[in-house]
Design a protein that fits this description.
There is one protein chain. The protein is 25% helix and 26% strand. Strand 10 and strand 11 form a beta hairpin. The longest helix is centred in the middle third of the chain and has 24 residues.
């Protein structure tokens, strides 16, 4: 098929690579403008642009895809279909109507659940047992179009945002190439989304990483995994921000008479903290101004004592 691809981050670049590898003719790649990074404010290209240029594919970087000049530029490419993955801009109905076969979206959840910008984090946060990729026929709504194809994966107990993202990134490329093959054969049957089963996964902010130790240990563990590596889960210790990178819930520890956030033990391999239900055993952490490290290395330089309490009303 002749395709115009729209996407921006690494997740989208993997899908673009899969389409090229499957023999589709990608006429152009549409992505966000280069962004300034770091203290030097060096302009860096998005991963989709890097991938496209490596394959000699023309790159379009409109600041506003809905503007008439951007729409006219799209019309110059006689694509059969547009494929969209984490592009970062909303397409107008005018754009959706350009390609004869419409526009497909590679969405990182099992729709109609978890529409929106942060589905991967929210499935972990909410304790879902599985997630996956949905190939959806785009319409004017936000992730409301007909379902064409789905591919599932089980969420493992130690999955965090990074590991689940990377797995879904590979699955997205697999799913879209499989769906396009079925579409060419006339074997895809659109399925209307059931609105009563829908939920929304809004964009995350830094405040979502704040840990509340009155919550249960299992819930705290899910929040840590959902926020790793960004925006990261955090609390405070002795007036400084303390990031928690890896932990697990434990329920064999006696927390009777202990307050949520109280350090129960700080041994050579972990720090155990009381929660609203059960306890959280921490294996990797990072104090403000220091590097991320294992609990063993951390405790060589920071002397945590049982009875001290993590967190306060004014967490850093």
């Amino acid at each position: 098929m002749k395709i115009v691809f729209m996407g921006t981050p690494e997740y989208a670049a993997a899908a673009l690579e899969a389409l090229i590898g499957a023999g589709h003719e990608v006429l152009a790649a549409v992505t966000q403008p280069d962004k300034a990074r770091g203290r030097s404010k060096t302009l860096l290209p998005p991963p989709v642009k890097v991938c496209a240029l490596e394959h000699g594919i023309p790159v379009l970087q409109p600041r506003r895809i809905r503007k008439p000049e951007a729409v006219e530029e799209l019309r110059q490419y006689p694509a059969d279909i547009y494929v969209v993955a984490a592009f970062g801009q909303i397409l107008s109905q005018e754009i959706l109507d350009i390609p004869p076969r419409g526009c497909l979206n590679i969405h990182a959840s099992l729709l109609p659940g978890y529409r929106g910008a942060s589905p991967i984090q929210h499935v972990i946060l909410n304790g879902e047992e599985k997630t996956g990729i949905t190939i959806m026929q785009m319409d004017a709504g936000i992730d409301t179009g007909d379902i064409l194809y789905r591919k599932e994966t089980v969420i493992q107990a130690d999955d965090n945002y990074e590991t689940l993202h990377d797995r879904l990134m590979v699955m997205g490329g697999q799913a879209v190439t499989e769906a396009l093959a079925l579409l060419e054969q006339g074997r895809l049957v659109p399925e209307k989304q059931k609105e009563e089963l829908s939920c929304y996964a809004p964009l995350l902010g830094r405040e979502m990483g704040k840990l509340d130790f009155t919550q249960g240990a299992a819930e705290l563990d899910r929040r840590i995994r959902a926020m790793t590596p960004w925006p990261s889960a955090y609390t405070s210790y002795q007036g400084k921000q303390l990031k928690i990178w890896r932990a697990e819930p434990v329920f064999s520890v006696n927390i009777f008479g202990r307050v949520p956030g109280e350090i129960l033990s700080a041994d050579r391999d972990s720090v155990t903290v009381a929660a609203g239900e059960g306890a959280l055993r921490i294996y990797e952490l990072q104090l403000e101004g220091r590097k991320r490290m294992t609990a063993h290395d951390f405790l060589l330089g920071v002397r945590m004592r049982p009875g001290e309490v993590l967190g306060s009303a004014e967490d850093c």
